[in-house]
Specification:
By secondary structure, the chain is mainly α. The chain contains six helices and two strands. It has a two-stranded antiparallel ribbon. Helix 2 packs antiparallel against helix 3. This is J domain-containing protein.
Amino acid sequence: MALNLPPDPYQALGVSKDAKLPEIRSAHRKLVLKCHPDKVQDATLKAQKQDEFQKVQQAYELLSDETRRLQYDEQVKLFELRKEMGRGVPTPRSNPFEFEVRTAEPRTTSYATRSRGPPPPKIYTTQSPPKAYEIPKYDDVYDKPPRSAKKSSSYEASERKRDEERQREIRKRDEEDRERQKLEKEKRRAAHGDRKKTRDKEKRRETEEKR
């Protein structure tokens, strides 16, 4: 049975495989603002944005969790290893661990003179050993299975609540950034005003000294 991997979270967020958490958060924030379905009125585009938004959220939840991210990376390595091994594996009809051993029988020129037919050849069949390289299923590796396309109403409500909380957190950070930029701008303006007053004061002093 083929192993199914989840969509590539690195590709979904547009980050490299060695990206750090701050870079992942920054990419997630930009994509959330870009593809949030609440910003689209058209029903067709809204469904498309909803799908994109869910993929971004799934990718962020996986990569922001260090344990799940490590599990995913190991899963990809195992998948590639199994893919390489699969190139040399015989067809399903041929099992490399199962073979037949026949005992040697004397060759006769005719069976017509024999009262009894030759005994059937003895066949020894070995059992296939357990595959040590068997890769665990995705459901066994990840704590959370892939989300089903058909969600219950309670799950959708929970998702909406989480989305609202994330949006509030994003708006809060935006407001803090704007407030910080405003304070820095006012600070620079005040410093510029102080320097101008100092220069004017020095000019007046020089004028009075010349008199």
